[in-house]
Amino acid sequence: MELFLVLFRQLIVMMLFMVVGYFLYKGKKVTAETNSALSNLLLFAILPCAIVNSFLTERTAEKMTGLWHSFLLAVVALVVSICISLFVYKKQPAEQFGVAFSNVGFMGIPIITAAIGAEAVFYVASFVALLNVLQQTFGVVLMSGDMKAVKPKKLLTIPVLIAMVLGILLFVTRFPVPQVVRSAVASLAAVNGPLAMVILGVFFAQVDIKEIFTTKRYYHISVMRLIIIPVITGLILWPLPGTPLIKLVALIAAAAPIGSNVSIFAKMYGQDYKSATQEVCQSTIFAVITMPAVVTLFSLLYGYAR
Q: Tens of pLDDT along 190-204?
C-alpha cells in the first residue's frame, strides 16, 4: 500500500505540472512554437543528461550483471508491446505506434526515481534507448508506410542513444568526472519530469477535452496501453533473470502512458495528429490510477520490498 501511495502522490504532482502548462498556453504566455522549442531542449539536453547521470555511479559486479538483465527485460517488454499493438490495431499505424511505445523517458524516469530511488534510473536507460531506436526505425516504417523512410545515419544522432553509450563508457572505464560537471548534469536531469509534464500540459490545452472523454475508441486504446500490455508484460518478466527491483523498473517503463512522440510522428507523416494527441492526454490522465495499481500488484508478485 505504501508503494501505491508513493506512486499516486508522484503522479498527482506530475499532473499539477501539466496544469501549469495548460494555463500557460490558455493565458497566451506559451505558444505552440515555444512548446516545440522546449521539447527540443528536453530531447537534446535534459533527457540525455538524465541518462548520463544514472551512469555516474560506482561500478560493481552486481550493477554490471543488472545492466545486462535490464537490457534483456527491456527487449522482451518492447517486443511484447509491439506484437500486441500490431495484432490488435491492424492497419491503424498511429494506434499501433501509440500503444507500442510508452512515455518511459519523460514519465517513467521521474516515477522510478520517486518509487525506488534515483539509483534505479540506471536500470531503465536501456529501455529508453531501445525505445527511441525502435521509434526511429520500426515506428518510422509504421507511420510512413515506406521502408526507405528510415535513415540509418539518423540512428547515430539519437540523443538518448549517444547519452547511453557515453554513460556506459564512463561507468565501465571509471573515468573521473569533475564534481562541478556531475552537479550540472544532475541539475539538468532533475528538470526532466517537471518540464516534460508542462510541455504535455500545453498539448492538452490544444485539444477538445470533451472529445477526450466522449470518444469510445480512446478508452479501448488506454486500456490496452495502461492495463493489458503491463499485465501481460509483468507476467512474462516474472520468471526471467533479474532482481525484483530490475523487474519492477522494467514494468514501470512498460506501464507508462502513451508517449507524446506519437503526436509528432503523426503530424510528420500525415496521420491523424488530433486523435493521436487526444489519446496521449487521456492515457496520461488515467495513468494516475493504473500505474500505481499495476506496479503495486506486481511488486507483491516479484517479492519487491521497498
A: 999 899 999 999 988
